[in-house]
């Protein structure tokens, strides 16, 4: 396994929901109209698995995918129950994103002040300040570029074409007849 594959395996530890039960990238019919919602705020984008997938794809091309991965890892970490599990995930986040030897190091202020000793007594919000820095970096830097990118514009165009397709209109009419009778 290459280092890049190792990073992917480590990141799966944080984001099992990115793939379906068979390991394929997740995609659901509910996300078909997502692009318009993604354009309203970064928060809306990050709440939609398909939006996260497209944003990651964009950030990967910009060599800054680690930002969204760190943000997502912190969100997952907040939900972690049990001291032992929190210690394990905190160490994984530290080693993956914050350590000087991190495989996907994020660039945050105060990073050097976060030492491995804090990992022994983890709490759900221990990464919050660093997560907020990364969120703001994405919001005021890469998010606006994402909205102008081919990845976003092509996805939005495909959604609009699907919405306007004869099959979609026919299905909508059938559904309307079924539920309005």
Automatic annotation (TrEMBL):
GO process annotations (BP): regulation of G protein-coupled receptor signaling pathway
PROSITE patterns associated with the record: RGS
One of the record's GO cellular component terms: nucleus
Name this protein carries in UniProt: RGS10 protein
Tagged with keyword DNA repair: no
The RGS domain, residue ranges: 41-152
Transmembrane segments: none
Gene Ontology molecular function terms on file: G-protein alpha-subunit binding; GTPase activator activity
Xref: Pfam families: RGS
Region annotation Disordered: where it falls in the sequence: 160-181
Keywords of this entry: GTPase activation
Keyword Cell wall biogenesis/degradation applies: no
């Amino acid at each position: 396994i290459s280092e890049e594959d190792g990073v992917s395996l480590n990141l799966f530890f944080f984001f099992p929901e990115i793939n379906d039960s068979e390991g394929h990238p997740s995609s659901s019919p509910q996300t078909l109209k997502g692009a318009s919602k993604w354009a309203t705020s970064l928060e809306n984008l990050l709440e939609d698995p398909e939006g996260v997938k497209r944003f990651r794809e964009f950030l990967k091309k910009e060599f800054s995918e680690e930002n969204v991965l760190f943000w997502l890892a912190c969100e997952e970490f907040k939900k972690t129950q049990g001291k032992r599990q929190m210690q394990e995930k905190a160490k994984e986040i530290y080693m993956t994103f914050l350590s000087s030897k991190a495989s996907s190091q994020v660039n945050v202020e105060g990073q050097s002040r976060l030492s491995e000793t804090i990992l022994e007594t983890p709490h759900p919000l221990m990464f919050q300040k660093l997560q907020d820095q990364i969120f703001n970096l994405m919001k005021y830097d890469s998010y606006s570029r994402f909205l102008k990118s081919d990845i976003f514009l092509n996805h939005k165009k495909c959604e609009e074409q699907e919405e306007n397709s004869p099959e979609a209109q026919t299905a909508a009419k059938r559904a309307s007849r079924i539920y309005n009778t």
